[in-house]
Design brief:
Layout: E1 5-9, H1 36-49, H2 57-67, H3 73-83, E2 89-105, E3 108-126, E4 129-135, H4 140-150, H5 178-181, H6 184-201, E5 205-222, E6 228-246, E7 249-259, H7 269-287, E8 290-291, E9 295-301, H8 308-315, H9 320-324, E10 345-348, E11 369-374, E12 377-378, H10 385-391, E13 399-400, E14 409-410, E15 414-417, H11 424-429, E16 433-446, E17 451-463, E18 466-472, E19 475-479, H12 480-484, E20 487-490, E21 495-496, E22 501-505, E23 508-516, E24 519-527
Parallel strand pairs: 8-18, 9-16, 15-23
Antiparallel strand pairs: 1-16, 1-22, 2-3, 2-5, 3-4, 5-6, 6-7, 9-24, 10-11, 10-15, 11-12, 13-14, 16-17, 17-18, 17-19, 19-24, 20-24, 21-23, 22-23
The structure holds zinc ion (ZN).
Residues 6-8, 311, 316, 503, 505 line the site of zinc ion.
């Protein structure tokens, strides 16, 4: 069997022991564990603010997919019912998306792309077989042609169509299109301001790269019973990378942030300067770094983005498809202890404004707060509709796709570990000799073996309970189920990352979030560069 691979990447790094960024409506992350009510209140506030909004997501997307294409909603509902007759499940996925990206490199605006795409994907499911056809032409004729193709999976099949997802009135993010709200000249000025500010901060700054990008995605899901669900998803991001040099030595540092909101907050100098300050801080730390040691040692992971460890070590391994096919290192372990006591990991698509959040997934299921591991015990998988049905469990709102060009598969949203009881200083103070890793470039995992690798972009030695010199080139290597049992201390400082991660699986990239408190792991293999 071919190994299943997945990975988490980011064009630029983030995190560090910084104050909580002024973005997202979450408040103090440390409160989450026992304060689910906070999030509900935050959602209520958004509801109140949007009361004047006259159009629902469904009405807005009806304009895009029906009024503008000449399709008739009632005829399309009937058409989908006809095409999917006798199937176990399936849906029509309609998508309209606008995206743009402006980048500055070496003092010049290098690219300013703007793109609009639209299309549909029609899926028919019979047992564990799925037929999928997609087209960029949104018309009833094209949907009919797609129907003929996807029905080929089910010759002779007489299934019963699965129940549609229950609806939701939840609003997790604005439906405003960020792309139109701020004009191009303001975005290019932001990037040139970043460049000038960075170069003025330190004479060792040699290169500055900065980018601002945004997406506005509108989707509508039409089911065989005629039910329709819509979602409108803004997504913006700003990244800054700085290269510094001293003599012959060059090092870089990067910082980015983003989420499902408008660009406006990036026009506030206090916010974009924070990005530059952090990128420069990292670059200068690396300028003074020494080669990383190698071998098995105690590793303390910082809070926030180092949660990429969870994404790789357990997240992918708890996706429903791998477990249904029994190709995950966690297959068959439901109800068993798979992590140290005290380790609780959730996948939560319901956090307002977050990069990984979704009102509904790409099958129309409302996203959820899904317990994966509770106090060390494996409690649940992340499911799309097909794998949930085949495993006899409920879909969890994790059926996602990169675009109409792909069938949905189980994917993570925001995956994080809940806070424990230790002060982060106490955790570092407990380590005689080890590694403190606070920033990572991303990672990858082999689902079947559970073996993961991720590389630190900012790390320090811990010597006699104190943070020592910075080290360069440390990679952490481990096995998912094994690594989770090596967690010996959990901090009280849960943070989510700042919103730049993209998860890749089966060739599909989707935006995700990660997070964790400071965590001590005993006996992790560090691949270093020291002789
Ligand atoms: Zn991933």
């Amino acid at each position: 069997m071919a190994a299943e691979h997945a990975h988490l990447t980011l064009p630029s790094l983030r995190d560090g022991p910084l104050p909580l960024p002024p973005m997202g409506g979450e408040g103090k992350f440390g409160d989450w564990r026992n304060d689910r009510g906070f999030r509900e209140r935050a959602i209520d506030i958004i509801f109140a603010a949007n009361k004047e909004t006259p159009m629902t997501n469904l009405a807005l997307t009806d304009d895009l997919f029906f009024a503008r294409t000449g399709m008739d909603a009632t005829r399309v509902e009937k058409l989908v019912g006809e095409q999917l007759r006798g199937m176990d499940d399936g849906e029509l996925f309609l998508e309209y998306s606008q995206s743009e990206s402006v980048a500055l490199d070496d003092g010049r605006i290098r690219s300013a792309g703007f793109d609009t795409t639209q299309g549909f994907g029609l899926r028919a499911i019979a047992d564990d077989a799925a037929g999928y056809a997609h087209a960029s032409e949104i018309s009833e004729a094209a949907i009919k042609r797609a129907g003929a193709t996807v029905r080929a999976v089910a010759s002779g099949h007489h299934g019963t169509m699965a129940e549609p997802p229950s609806g939701t009135n939840r609003i997790l993010y604005t439906d405003l299109n960020p792309l139109g709200a701020v004009d191009l000249s303001a975005k290019t000025k932001l990037l040139t301001d970043i460049d000038a500010y960075a170069r003025g901060l330190d004479p060792r700054v040699r290169q500055v790269m900065a980018s601002i990008s945004g997406v506005w995605q509108a989707v509508q899901i039409v089911r065989a019973d005629g039910s329709r669900v819509a979602d409108i998803r803004p997504l913006v991001r700003v990244n800054v990378s700085i290269m510094v040099g001293e003599g012959d030595r060059m090092e870089t540092g990067s910082y980015g942030s983003g989420g499902r909101f408008a660009y406006e907050r990036y026009l506030d100098p206090a916010n974009w300067k924070r990005h530059v300050d952090e990128a420069l801080r990292q670059a200068l730390v690396n300028l003074d770094s020494v080669p990383a040691p190698a071998g098995e040692m105690v590793v303390v992971l910082g809070s926030g983005w180092p949660g990429v460890m969870l994404h790789e070590a357990v997240g992918h391994g708890l996706e429903g498809d791998f477990n249904r096919k029994k190709t995950s290192a966690f297959s068959g372990m439901m109800g068993q202890q798979v992590a140290s006591k005290g380790v609780t990991v959730v996948d939560d698509g319901t956090i307002p404004d977050r990069r990984g959040s979704l009102t509904v997934d790409d099958e129309g299921t409302p996203s959820g707060y899904n317990m994966l591991i509770e106090d060390g015990i494996l409690k649940g998988y992340m499911q799309d509709r097909m794998n949930a049905r085949l495993m006899g469990v409920r879909p969890t709102g994790n059926g996602r796709r990169e675009s109409f060009g792909y069938a949905p598969i189980p994917r993570m949203t925001n995956t994080y570990m809940l806070a424990g009881g230790h002060d982060p200083q106490e955790i570092i103070g407990s380590v005689k000799k080890g590694l403190y890793a606070v920033n990572f470039g991303g990672g990858s995992v082999d689902i079947t073996s559970g073996k993961f690798v991720f590389s630190a972009s900012e790390a320090y030695l811990i010597e006699d309970g104190k943070v020592g010199p910075a080290v360069k080139g440390a990679t952490l290597i481990g096995n998912g189920p094994d690594a989770m049992t090596k967690i010996t201390m959990i901090g009280n400082d849960l943070r989510l990352d700042d919103g730049v991660g993209t998860c890749g699986k089966d060739g599909q990239g989707v935006p995700v979030g990660v997070g964790q408190p400071t965590v001590r792991m005993d006996g992790i293999t560090v691949g270093g560069t020291a002789a």
